[in-house]
Amino acid sequence: MAAQIIDGKAISQQVKDEVALEVAKLKEQGVTPGLAVILVGEDPASNVYVTNKERTAKELGMHSVLHRLPADSSQADVEALVDQLNADPAIHGILVQSPLPKGLDEETIFRRVLPYKDVDGFHPENVGKLWLGDNALVACTPAGCMVLLEKMGVDLKGKKAVVVGRSNIVGKPMAALLLAKHATVTVCHSRTADLPAVCREADVLVAAVGRLQMIKGDWVKPGAVVIDVGINPVPGTKSKIRGDVDFDSAAEVAGAITPVPGGVGPMTIAMLMSNTVKACKMQMK
Ligand code: GUN
Predict the structure, then answer these.
(1) Interval 113-167: pLDDT, tens
(2) Using a 6 Å cutoff on CB, does residue 95 contact ligand 1?
(3) Structural domains in the chain?
(4) pTM summary value
C-alpha cells in the first residue's frame, strides 16, 4: 500500500479542541453557545447521529438540547418547534436531522430555520452566500473535507478536482469550496459519460455518491488525494460500513486517502460544533 492514510479521527479531535477553547472564551464573556437538534421519528441511524451530536456539544462545554418528536408529527408541529427555537436567545444553532418521515416537507422545514442559526448550511441564503464567496454557514460534511485537505497541506491552486455526486448536502457545496480555493472543478453524476476516465484526471477526487465501493483503484490517478464521503452498510454484515471508494485497490495508487470509517465521518460532527460557535459569534454582533 502506497497511500498516506488521512486520519479523520485525529484531525476532528484537533478541530474539537479548538472549538472547546472558543467555547471557554465565549463563556468568559457570559455567552454559552447553544445547539438544538430536532429528531422526528425513530430512524436508528439518525438516532445514533443525533445522540452523538448532543453528547459532543456538551463535551465541548456548549448548551445542547435534543428535541424528539413522534414520527406522526405534522408539518405544523415541526414548524412550530423551529419557530420556538428561532426565537430562543439561548439557541444559536438549529439542526433538523434528515431524513424526515414521509409526509413532511423537508425543504420547507430547512428553510424555516433562520439563516444565522442554520448550522447545517442548507438555507438558500447560506448556499447563495457560499457561491458568492461571502461569509456563510457552510454544510458540515464538505466543510470537513476542506479541513482534511488543509491539514494535509494539499495546495488546491490550479489542481484538477473531481467531485462524484451532485447532492445539495455534499456535492454542490464541495464544488463551491474547491472552486474558492482555485481548483478546476468537475462535478460528475449518474449521467456522466465515461466516469472512470473523468476520475482518472483528478488530482483531488471526492466521492459522494452513496454507492458501496463503486470507485476502483484503476479510476484513481497515481498520487491523487482521495476523499471518501460514502457511509454504506456492507450487505450481510451487522453494522460494517464502507465508503464509495474501493479502499484496498485505491490505496495502492493514491498519494493520500481517507478510510471509512475514521475519515470524513468524524469531521462532520466536529464542523457542526465549529458552525455553532461561528453562528453564536455572528449573533453577538
Ligand atoms: N443526515 C445525514 N447527514 C446530515 C446532515 O449533515 N445534516 C442533517 N440535518 N441531517 C443529516
Answers:
(1) 999 999 999 999 999 999 999 999 999 999 999 999 999 999 999 999 999 999 9
(2) yes
(3) 31-115 (3.40.50.10860), 139-265 (3.40.50.720)
(4) 0.97
